[in-house]
Amino acid sequence: MKRQSFILLSAICLSLTMSACSNSANNNQTSGVSPSPSSAGTSASQEGSASPDAEPQTLTMVYSQGEFSWPAYEKMAEAFKEKTGHTVKLQYVPAAEFDKYLDAQFIAGTEADIIMGGPSDKSSWFKNGWIVNLYPHMDEASRFTNAAWRDSFVDGVLESATDKTPPEKLYGIPIQLTTVNLYYNKTIFNEIGAAEPPKTITELLEVAKKAEDAGYVGFSIQNSMDWNLGWLATDLWGYLWKPKLEQLDVINQDGYVGTDEWALAVKKGMVTKDSPELKEYARVLKDLSPYFNEGFNTASWEFESLFNDGKSAMALNGSWYPNQALQNNLTVDYGIAPIPYLDKTYSQLGGEERYNYIMGGEAYVAITAKAEKDGKLQAALDWLRFWTDPNGGAKMMTDELFLIPVVKGIQAPEQVQPIIDTFGTEKQVSFNAFKFEPEQSDAFFKAQQQYLDNKLTADAFIGDITKTLEKYADAAIKANPEWGVEALIERK
Amino acid sequence: MKPLRLMESRAAYLCLLPTFLFVGLFLVYPTFEAIRISFLDWNLRNYYHPEFVGLSNYREIFNNDVFIDSFRVLAIFLGWQLVILQGISVLAGYLIYLLGTSRFAGFIKVAFIIPMVIPGMVSTLFWLFFYEPTNGMLNMLLGQLGLESWQKVWLGASQTTAIGSLLMKGFPWISGIGFLIYLAGFQSLDESVRESARMDGASGWTVFWRIDLPLILPQLKLTTILVLIGGIQQYGDQYILTKGGPGYDTTVPGLFLFNNAFNYGKLGIGSAAGVTLFLIIALFTVLNLRFMKSRT
Q1: What is the per-residue pLDDT across B166-213, written as a single tens digit (0 to 9) for each?
Q2: Considering only CA atoms, which of A374, A440, A397, A474 is closest in space to residue A174?
Q3: Which fold has domain B65-265+280-295?
Q4: ipTM given for this complex
């Protein structure tokens, strides 16, 4: 009896182990196989349009937007269910961990059907066969507008989210026009006698000094993560490199400078330790740093609380701030203005006036290849189409969250009108020569921290970030043969 | 009798089999897999087509100043944890042992043990708020005491300040499994040995240094190995409090590994760093065991 019990117990344990292992193996098999990059988009378009889902589906969507947006998303999911019968389960993941979470989910094959956010450049996701190309679906009719989906969008929005490397691809759809602006405290400005918000870097330095002299933080910012000060940097780079646009925009010739064109620029010796653009960038940051809040290199959201508490004269924030201020009953009397631009008075490389940029969006909400494999593509497309329906989700997002709409026919809230007034027709030159690899971006960011902490001189800072430029450019060129950069270098 | 014993052994082995399978699957296999991955160029771009690159990842990390410098930073943390933290834990354990079984001793024990149930993440976040430059408790306290000139950006002003702040985290550093192990060690000592020494005229210090401390050598050996293993792998506090900064000033090898594997998507480099740490830990453990054996 004793012997039989032992054998029986052992058999149960063994079978449990085996079953656990076999489940794991099956899961891996399902998730590990992915469509080839070239087939990911095309198969999506064929199956998606040919076999719409008749049965109600349950979709999962993962996002990282803060708490303020959750009720609006839930409301939208309910409205979508009412209209289509499809259920959307929303899952929040904190922004700081979001990209790592997504990578892990993709690798494990347990990703959600729809992903909101993630890296702005989703080309590697597409290459791995993790997401679908949405372009083939843009000409299909939306069940909500009864017109081609493409027609809903404001002109230029889809273009700015497009990967132009042939064949053109749309990895996701933009759902809002996000901009960053200067927010200034009107009370402090009155106190220090500043009649208007600063329009230029020269004026910004003057006003920030006045505010500091009056006992306020001139310009609150954070540099412990690569946003916020990075927003200012993006604007500065736009001015610094604009004069060389013609020499840089040689592959796509579309008025923008893509990562492929920056790789070519590095190989052509256009970005070096002697580049005046880099030296001017370092100079602006150093001149501004005395007016930043103490500890800006390690601070995170303190920059915002300093502004909200009326202790800081100016801060940079996104177009979402008016809604947050309203929801949190903030008492700070603030005004909104464009980011002060790099002017000719301050720098030879500066501009004569503020460029009013075309506002685009990035491939923000993507549909995973897993959703397609699971037969949920049509439901997922419907969800995205509902999101961009001027009478449905898009209106709800605008009303509830003050998002600047990406689709036509919606009146934006008056609070964000000053932001919309800054939109124009200029194309912003982005600077991606330090963004070929995440590791390289991090090294740039760390060197900038050390420079602003006075641990590196300007020359050492620039020397540090440029010494590995060629290595990273070479790796990017090798990893992306479709850019055709090697041929261009050889031709040169 | 013999066949019955054989059957019982078989049954015991069969019962242990699932455990062995799980250990193999979740502990042994990943270790060998990490060694294999350390020879590959494997990142998100080529996730499905990793490339064999031999020792290239190892060459890269040993030519990387951040990785090399991270060991200097680690040495500071490890030295602190091995000497100061262990020393204080031994001392605290001994003092509580001397209190005997009084009610007060019981209260002190509970007071030291309660903080152990607070998750490490929570206490680390508390220290983050404590050091926060604008509204943090430390700077506020200094302000209240009229010591404004002492106020600092504790986690970012300089390497010295940042490392110092990280070392001060957890003050008075008694909470921890080490303290319990030492206390249990002292409590298991034979009282008669101490009493004989006392009768021979040994002072309190002599009893502690010459008798009690040598008798808890097995516990010291165990905690030293545990601190070495955990210490060399550490990166949590640095990740949460300073992100390895300012610059790379508080980056330890564990954080270098984490950043490469999970932030930069360089699984080969991350694995090479992991294998290097594994070898270092193994070496230290063997040396430590030999040293302790010779002492015993």
Answers
A1: 999 988 887 678 888 999 999 998 888 888 888 888 888 899 998 999
A2: A397
A3: MetI-like fold (1.10.3720)
A4: 0.71
